[in-house]
Amino acid sequence: MESSRDDFVIALRSAFLKKGTQQRFSLLSLIFFSIIFLILGSFNFKIINYVKIGITEIVYRSSFVVSVPENLIKDSYLTIQNHNKLYKENENIKSELEILKAKDLLNEFIILENQRLKNIVDDYLVKSETIIAKVLSDKGSPFLRSIIINKGSKHKINLGMVVMDGAYLVGKVVEVNYLSSRVLLLSDLNSKIPVIVEPNTVFSILSGTGKNYGIIQYSKKNEDIKRESIIYTSGAGSLFKAGIPIGRMNINNLSDEKKVEFFSDFSQLKFVKVVSFKKSENK
Amino acid sequence: MTRLRNKNFIKIILSKAPIILLFVSVLNDFDFNHLSLKYFSFNFSYILIFYYSLKKSESLGYTYIFIAGLFNDVVIGTPIGLSSLIYLILCVAASYLRNITLRPSLLKDCVFFLFTILIINSLLFLFLKFIFNYELNYFDQIINITFTFLFYFLFSNIFDFFESYFVSSKNAG
């Protein structure tokens, strides 16, 4: 029993104190150093802090060098992964393109069918000419909601031409000068245009209010007009081409007023399209 | 003459391979001990130090291990001296096992390695949690210990292979 304890002590002492070949310090002395480092470091001892700063400088610089092969491998891996991703992305885009091509063909078919049906019912087809105009002035007054554009009769602007902001209706030309024109906005109190409310196909009149919204008037099928319904021009009276988007219904539960929120923000107009729709001859 | 010089250079590099590996594992950005995987991490330095302290104590100098510990503390942000202490305790355990072992076997080494890493990780946990107020996840520590123990088998064989086929043959040559 005693000899086994002796063996344990001898082995332990040897482990701690015996210096191997090419060993300058014994394990015990190095453990002692580590503990000193730990204790002095926890008290923020200046020398330890300087040692730490020195080691940090060495470590960060050598870490950069040591990490070069690993970063190279990592970068290569990322490049390969990106290539793989690109391949998958390409596959996805190809399949999407196929779907879009199919849809495009379907659209083409619908357009042709629409033209054919219009021919059958003796309706007219429209051709449009677009003139881009810059908004010179949009000073709104309490009585008039209009803008001045930098195109006039010189540029073949005529009374009643439709003014659009992108795909959305903004108003119509009400005054034409040689180099400028006035556009009456849909929000003006005097603006009244025939519209259609979709879904449910409710024909009505959109009136301006002098504010930044319009209201739906003279409609009997009020219950068919739902919140979020879309307002398009109806084309009735040949004032506008049918199907130009105008705005969305914003029905307030508290009042009976059927408010229309315009798609276009009239206070932010910089450039507008002045469009003339002409009847084209049926084939 | 040049061939002889090249041979000597390769010989030196191979004999210093454990030290180089230790410093690379400490300084490298890619740390097996802090992988972003949730249930997988192991301490490569522990395996390397224990194996070479046990089998080839002349390959890894204690001073280098001490310095590697200091570097590790700076890299991972633990109090300076703590990793050195842990590494050196690992060396003590390996040295003790070497002294008492008459007939070495991998299984015995592994069991002793497990016992040692349990102790040193407990010490590390105690130091960091109760003295230096670090937040540690006990579960992560357990996972780290488990994988470090399991990987000892694999790396022990790899190091054996490396020592017998590269270092010994070069020395004999």
Strands, helices and their partners?
The complex is a heterodimer of chains A (283) and B (173).
Chain A: H1 2-17, H2 27-42, H3 46-120, E1 125-137, E2 146-149, E3 162-165, E4 168-176, E5 181-185, E6 192-198, E7 202-208, E8 213-217, E9 230-233, E10 245-251, E11 258-262, E12 271-280
Antiparallel strand pairs in A: 1-2, 1-12, 2-5, 3-4, 3-12, 4-5, 6-7, 6-9, 7-8, 8-11, 9-10, 10-11
Chain B: H1 2-15, H2 17-27, H3 44-55, H4 62-76, H5 82-100, H6 106-131, H7 138-172
Task: Name a few traits of the molecule.
heterodimer; A: 283 residues; alpha+beta; Thrombin, subunit H; 3 helices; 38% helix; 28% strand; elongated; B: 173 residues; mainly alpha; 7 helices; 0% strand; globular
Strand content of chain B: under 5%
Radius of gyration of chain B: 17 Å
The arrangement of helices and strands of chain B along the chain is HHHHHHH
Order of helices and strands of chain A: HHHEEEEEEEEEEEE
Secondary structure class of chain A reads alpha+beta
Write up this protein.
The complex is a heterodimer of chains A (283) and B (173). In chain A, 38% of the residues lie in helices and 28% in strands. Chain A is α+β, with helices and mostly antiparallel strands and 283 residues long. In chain A, the strands form two sheets. Chain A has a six-stranded antiparallel beta barrel. In chain A, a hairpin with a 4-residue loop joins strand 4 (168-176) and strand 5 (181-185). Chain A is elongated. The model of chain A has no long low-confidence stretch (mean pLDDT 79). Chain B is an all-alpha fold. Chain B has helices at 2-15, 17-27, 44-55, 62-76, 82-100, 106-131, 138-172. The longest helix of chain B has 35 residues, at 138-172. Chain B is globular and about 55 Å long.
